[in-house]
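Posting for a labmate who doesn't have an account.
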Amino acid sequence: YFDEELAKLATKSDAAKTEEVKARIRESKNNILRQVYVESVIKESSTDEKVNQKYAQFSAELVNKKEYLISHIIVKSKEEAEKIQKEIASKKLTFVNAAKKYSLDKESAADGGKLGFVLENNLIGQISTEISKLKKDEVSNPIQTEFGWHIIKFSETRDAKALPFEDVKENVRQQLIKENLDEVKNKILKDVEVNILMETKELKTPTEAGEENAKSKSDVPSKQKNQSKEAKSK
């Protein structure tokens, strides 16, 4: 009761009529509306029925697909990759130890370069092409991708199949939520033009900069010049 009455008094007071307070009220209202809308999108997009439908879609997409058990080593340059490949071929290092020693992917390197089973659709094009040529436990030639230079080892292949529904249903739910929130975001920003305005200093050409430096040096009093020469000689 007290809060309600206090709000009535506040609404009638001069304090509520300032532009600062009006702006704060608008922002609070907008925050509530945004939150309520996002919650409604989440609720509508992640019903049990829609989660089941999405899981069925994922399962259907895996029909006749393969998964590859692969390990990789990734480095920055072709030369480094070739060097590592030679060390593995000459048995100076096993693939596992080479991954632990050289790979930039520290997460997989800790497990000897293992990436686990990867669905063929999720493989980078260059790697997918190379794997199709490899025999079991064969090490690839260096492969260049946008991430660096890879050495791949292919260990096993199997038919792709969905994990049990109960194991992945929450992941599917989160995927649905993300897709729907991304759709809202893209709808809002689709035709928006963004201009970034910033103050910039005019850049001088090398000639202008040189002339300015020369001028500044010529303005140094002769006594200061002499002192500078004297300091240098000392």
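Reply:
Got it, the structure tokens are right above this. Residues 216-234 have pLDDT under 50 and may be disordered.
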